[in-house]
Design goal:
The complex is a heterodimer.
Chain A lengths: L12 E5 L1 H4 L8 H10 L2 E2 L12 E2 L5 E5 L2 E2 L8 E4 L1 H10 L2 H5 L7 E4 L6 E2 L2 H6 L17 H12 L5 E5 L3 H10 L4 E4 L5 H12 L14 H14 L5 E4 L6 H11 L11 E5 L8 H6 E2 L10 E2 L1 H4 L4 E5 L6 H13 L1 E2 L8 E2 L3 E6 L12 H7 L4 E3 L10 H15 L7 E2 L1 H9 L5 H15 L5 E2 L39 H11 L14 H22 L14 H9 L6 H12 L8 H13 L29 H4 L1
Parallel strand pairs in A: 1-4, 1-7, 2-4, 7-9, 9-10, 11-18, 11-19, 12-15, 15-18, 20-21
Antiparallel strand pairs in A: 5-6, 6-8, 13-14, 16-17
Helix pairs in contact in A: 3-6, 9-10, 13-14, 15-17, 19-20, 20-21, 21-22
Chain B lengths: L2 H30 L2 E2 L5 H29 L15 H50 L12 H23 L5 H13 L1
Helix pairs in contact in B: 1-2, 1-4, 2-3, 3-4, 3-5
């Protein structure tokens, strides 16, 4: 079972390898360690302190610290011989790195490593000076032979991704070349009164830190490395391009970048505006992007454009691969000039906007028709890569737990349940081509279909293609199922219908087969509409409402469309439009329940009331709409 | 590395930087209000006193023996300079020691001054902390009101300790070739 207490490890955990602060002191607390924690404002969470009451409370500690001496014995009395212990030190690092990762726990965020480790006998004099510390041997205090440098070599060799800083009161210049050569990222002087700020800076720049507010769930190494890159990139105002497979949470990463910019510049009042690039139509993009100047004489209402709305903050452009060529040119111009001219305005307006863009496409491919000069501008500050879920399987238990709780909360009367270990094992072995969004859909689906269970077991899950199995059991439902609620903060970088279409596109033809089908694309298109109509039929059957008067069930196109798309926010009119768009090309051959569904859709949205192209450019509806409302992208894919 | 040199490094590294300054830093964090505490506890003042008494005593001892220990005269007791004939050794030793004393006298007096400066700041801080202790509220409260005077004394003491640390770093035996090269430079003019 997943332990709810283990869900959030959002406080950085650092390891401090140091003979002075890592040592245990017979029957006493290690005062030097307590002082060091106060100096850096860190919380001591070392196991050896459990028996000693702590008497200081750090306000807003920047990290939890585990101390280790790197020597044996850890607790030395007068007469004891203290020796350096490389193997024990490596084992300690491994415990919080390799072992932690294997157990789905966060790895060390940072390692602080001392240089000089004193060895030899603990004498009365040395004990009086510092309890438990030996007198030292020749060479211990020699910069050419510091044990800390030996440790640095060994640790960096075995754990190359672990960020290491030197923490020492020795002169930095004695060793700066050596520690840099051996892989340490920096040096923190122990006696520098700016200790908390120096440590915080080291953590932010180089540490492996989970999202402090938990919006991005997980602490697997690939995710932590991606977050670190994002934090580094967030420190400047250059445009950034977020790349990653669909469903990996690219918009969440963009929001993270927006939040992480706060330490450099006050984030209060800095806007974050998100928009799906696919909604820009060639005729209306200008008013959406640049706004409309109000005209009293003509009665034209003014409208703030997206770029101006993001002034001083960030504009997130999702799915930029779908941006029409006209829009690409306009965006490029705005990027170059840092100015916008609202429609109908005579004067330009200066804007300070950072563009954060996202794509899952290979935009460098000339056949995609994406302007290379625009791509260069959009990725001026760099490209960030979000790992797919299959490369961060360690995060699956945390994500699953979160989604189960969300699903329970959205489903009235759903019981709180545990996730059975075999379910977690199953979730961890699945490849998740749809990434986090697919995981979320699978769990919401399971909770919705089994609201009264205390355990989520493998049998509750339908993996491998979302709605592909929806028609397997077209049993009438006692009551209308509540489709999952789409929570924007979870994964919302594309709409579910688009996701569904993409899944379908993967079922089709390999590029090398297109030669055989040359000249028959129209037939293929129609065949594909038929294929998709089968899915709609499955959704229609699964959501029929049975009543005593109508035991065979009443067709409900709104719940069916919501189930098919996984989008609970879909309005009734949009649901009707969806049916019309998908079934329209097959109108002449529809029969039975599909025909009935088609007729209901038409009655709800008569031909004169077809979805207006204008409405699709409404920014507030961006997330709920398909990429190309008037023409499905199937022909291209075929 | 001689015993004296080793003691000097440990006094600077272990006692001054790792113990005394860290104790002082903790007091500063409390006075800054970054650690929840009802004033600076007595045991911390006691801890600081113990650390200071030890540091002061050991530093005085170190400085008292510094001239002898750092002097180039010690090199003539060791190989290879102990192989010199007595005539050469006599004039060379005199010359080197004189040259050494030109700079070491100044360094040593600056270090002694830094030490006495610390003693003065330390006493001011203790007095200020004692006043703070006497005036603190009976109930435990969040340290919203920071005692600026005590904090300033603590910061002043911290800076002076860092200056002492820099001075102590300068107190190392000078390389014989270094001193000789200075002499060579002088004679060539």
């Amino acid at each position: 079972m997943t332990n709810a207490d283990d869900l959030h490890f959002n406080v950085p955990r650092i390891l401090i390898l140091d003979d002075l602060f890592g040592r245990e002191v017979t029957s006493r607390k290690n005062i030097d360690r307590e002082n060091l924690c106060a100096h850096f404002l860190i919380e001591d969470v070392t196991d050896d302190l459990v028996r000693i009451a702590r008497n200081q409370s750090i306000i807003n500690p920047s990290a939890d610290a585990v101390f280790f001496r790197g020597q044996t014995p850890e607790c030395a009395a007068i007469g004891a011989i203290v020796e350096n212990n490389l193997e024990a030190s490596l084992a300690k690092v491994r415990e919080g790195w390799t072992d932690a990762i294997a157990q789905g726990k966060p790895p060390w965020s940072l390692l602080l490593l001392d240089l000089c480790f004193y060895t030899g006998r603990v004498t009365e004099e040395s004990h009086r000076r510092t309890p438990g510390m030996p007198d030292g041997r020749p060479g211990d205090d020699d910069p050419r032979s510091y044990f800390g440098l030996t440790l640095l070599d060994a640790i960096h060799r075995e754990f190359p991704e672990l960020p290491i800083f030197i923490l020492s009161s020795k002169p930095r210049e004695e060793v700066s070349l050596e520690f840099s050569r051996r892989g340490a990222l920096g040096f923190i002087a122990r006696d520098d009164l700016r200790g908390p700020e120096l440590l915080e800076d080291a953590l932010q720049q180089h540490g492996l830190l989970p999202d402090p507010v938990g919006e991005i769930v997980g602490h697997s190494l690939p995710l932590l490395l991606a977050l670190r890159e994002a934090r580094r990139a967030a420190r400047h105002r250059e445009n950034l391009l977020v790349r990653g497979e669909r469903g990996t949470g690219k918009e969440l990463l963009a929001r993270y970048i927006h939040r992480m910019h706060a330490p450099v510049q006050d984030s209060s009042g800095r806007p974050f505006v998100a928009v799906n690039s696919a909604v820009f139509s060639p005729s209306l993009f200008a008013s959406e992007l640049f706004g409309i100047e109000p005209r009293t004489a003509t009665g034209v209402d003014g409208k703030t454009g997206l770029i101006e709305a993001a002034n001083g903050g960030d504009l997130f452009l999702d799915e930029i691969a779908d941006m029409p060529p006209e829009v690409q040119s306009a965006v490029l111009r705005a990027l170059q000039e840092r100015q916008v001219t609202p429609v109908g305005a005579r004067e330009v307006r200066n804007v300070d906007v950072r563009f954060l863009s996202a794509t899952n496409a290979h935009l460098e491919d000339p056949s995609r028709g994406f302007r290379s000069d625009l791509l260069d501008r959009l990725s001026l500050g760099g490209s960030l890569w979000l790992p797919p879920l299959r490369e961060r399987r360690g995060d699956i238990p945390l994500l699953a737990e979160k989604f189960v709780r969300e699903a329970e909360a959205s489903r009235t009367g759903a019981m709180r349940r545990d996730i059975a270990p075999e379910t977690l094992a199953m979730l961890r072995t699945h490849d998740w081509p749809g990434n986090i969004r697919e995981l979320r859909s699978a769990i919401f689906d399971a909770v919705n279909r089994h609201p009264d269970m205390e355990h989520l077991v493998p049998g509750h899950l339908r993996l491998g293609g979302g709605m592909r199995h929806a028609g397997v059991s077209p049993r009438p439902l006692a009551e209308e199922a509540t489709p999952p609620t789409v929570i924007e903060e979870t994964v919302n970088d594309a709409d579910p219908f688009r996701e569904w279409l993409e899944i379908q596109s993967r079922l089709r033809f390999e590029p090398q087969q297109t030669g055989l089908w040359a000249g028959r694309l129209d037939e293929l298109q129609r065949a594909h509409y038929r294929l998709m109509s089968r899915y709609l039929l499955a959704a229609v059957q699964a959501t029929k409402r049975c009543t005593p008067k109508c035991p065979q069930g009443i067709i409900q196109i709104h719940p069916a469309a919501k189930l098919a798309t996984g989008d609970d926010s879909l309005s009734a009119s949009k649901a009707a439009d969806l049916f019309k768009r998908l079934l329209g090309p097959l109108e002449d051959e529809l029969q039975g329940e599909l025909k009935e569904a088609w007729e209901k859709a038409v009655s709800l949205r008569p031909r004169t009331g077809k979805a207006k192209p204008d409405s699709f450019t409404d920014v507030s509806m961006v997330k709920a709409l398909p990429a190309r409302p008037q023409s499905l992208p199937l022909g291209e894919n075929i | 590395m001689s015993d004296w040199e080793s003691k000097r490094r440990r006094l600077n590294h272990d006692v001054l930087k790792n113990q005394f300054l860290q104790s002082l830093s903790r007091i500063i964090r409390i006075l800054e209000g970054r650690i929840e505490d009802n004033g600076v506890p007595k045991d911390m003042c006691q801890q600081l006193s113990t650390a200071w008494n030890y540091l002061n005593t050991e530093a005085q001892k170190l400085l008292d023996s510094a001239e002898d220990e750092m002097s180039p005269a010690t090199w003539f007791l060791q190989y290879p300079l102990n192989q010199l004939n007595m005539v050469d050794r006599a004039w060379m030793e005199t010359l080197l020691v004189s040259e050494f004393k030109l700079s070491s006298d100044l360094t040593l007096s600056e270090t002694r001054l830094a030490l006495s400066d610390i003693d003065l700041s330390y006493r001011k801080l203790l007095l200020s902390l004692a006043l703070l202790e006497n005036n603190k509220p009976k109930t435990k409260t969040h340290p919203e009101v920071i005692d600026t005077e005590a904090l300033n004394y603590a910061l002043e003491l911290y800076n002076k300790c860092q200056q002492l640390s820099n001075q102590l770093s300068k107190l190392s035996s000078q390389d014989v070739m270094n001193v000789l090269s200075k002499i060579g430079h002088v004679t060539s003019i």
